[in-house]
Structure formats: C-alpha cells, structure tokens
Amino acid sequence: MFNGNIVVEEENQPTREDNVFNHISELFFDKYNINIYLSACDKLMYENGMFYSYLDVIECKDTINKHYEQKISEFVKPDFEYFTIKDTGYRAKYSENIYKIDVFGVYCDNTSFINLLMNPERCSTEDIGSLYMAKNSISEEWGYAGNGFETTTGKHLK
Questions:
Q1: Across-strand partners of 106?
Q2: What is each CA distance from 101 to 26, 67, 130, in whole angstroms?
Q3: 3-state secondary structure at position 52
Q4: CA-CA distance, 83 to 13, in Å (whole number)?
Q5: C-alpha dihedral over 144, 54, 66, 39, to 10 degrees?
Q6: Is 112 exposed, middle or buried (0-12, 13-18, 19+ CB in 10 A)?
Q7: For position 14, what pLDDT does the model report?
Q8: pLDDT tens, 99-136?
Q9: Hey, CA dihedral for 104, 109, 112, 114, is it positive or negative?
Q10: 94 touches 48 (CB < 8 A)
Q11: Closest Cα to residue 96, out of 7, 2, 4, 23?
Q12: Which residues of the chain have a pLDDT value below 70?
C-alpha cells in the first residue's frame, strides 16, 4: 500500500491535479503486485500519445510475465515512498498536457514512521525512477509513456 507524501507542482488547474493525483495513486496503491504492471500494459502510449496496439500490449504482458519475479526480487523495497507530480507544459500530437511523476524511496535504519520523524538523519532518500503520463486527446483516457513522449515542439520526454 502507498505510504508516503504527495507533492503536486502545478498552479493553475486544481481539477486536473485531482485527476492526475487519483490516477497515479491507483497505480501506486498495490505497486508490488504483478497485476498492476500487467494492467499498465493496457495504458501504455506511443511517443505521439496514441495507445499501444493489441499486439504491443500482448508483448508487454508477455515480457512482464517472463521477467517480473526476477526484477521484483532484485529490487530493494524502500521503507516509505513518495512521488511528485509536475505538469511539464508539453503535449504530444494526440495527448493533453504531459505530467512527469518522480518516485522516491526512503530507506531507514529503523522502519517505524515515528523514527523517521524523530531521527530523519538515520534515513536516506533515493530516486527510484520517473515516468510520464498524459490524457489521450481523443479518448480522454489516461496513459503512460511506453518509451517517452515526442512533444509537439520536438522535445523528447523520456
């Protein structure tokens, strides 16, 4: 279960923030469950903001089924996690605004939350990774960048 803080770095549109927050929270709710990763395959987008084809979704799911156990066993799970959400201000050809989600893990000597508050110097924070997400401008469904997004200005977000 997600056990961290949320920081939303966007000023203008609180309705959008809530939607982005809700969508990304669903992803992180049970983040170590293989089914979360398998269902994310259905929401992967190409660089232009269109959703993956049926064949690419099947390939994604096959890859996860093949490598999930090894990858999750190699991953050192943090004691606490949090993520930030930032509107990049960019769009892909078939997307609305693209958001960057940065994920951080907090590793502590003693894993109690009170210890984290009382002795933060005994904890370290590490950048776990980033992902990009956007709403498809045709279907208005949220999705994740499979290999980054190519913005309408020519910038590649990966």
A1: 80, 125
A2: 13, 24, 5
A3: coil
A4: 19
A5: 50
A6: exposed
A7: 45
A8: 999 999 988 877 677 766 777 778 889 999 999 999 99
A9: negative
A10: yes
A11: 23
A12: 1-19, 21-31, 111, 115-116
Query: According to DSSP H, which parts of the chain are helical?
Result: 14-29, 34-41, 54-74, 113-118
Residue found by looking up tokens 């259905």 in the block: 42
Q: Tokens 């907090």 map to which residue?
A: 106
Q: What are the structural domain ranges in the chain? A: 6-146
Q: In this structure, what token pair is assigned to residue 138?
A: 């045709």
Measure the CA–CA gap between 11 and 86, rounded to whole angstroms: 10
Q: Pairing mode, if any, of strands 6-9 and 80-91?
A: parallel
| Assigned token pair, 141 | 């469904």
Tokens of 115: 């210890």
Main-chain dihedrals φ then ψ at residue 146, nearest 5 degrees: -70, -45
CA dist., res. 114 & res. 80, Å (int) = 12
State both tokens at 78: 């943090």
Q: Is 10 helix (H, G, I), strand (E, B) or coil?
A: coil
And the tokens for 140? 């208005």
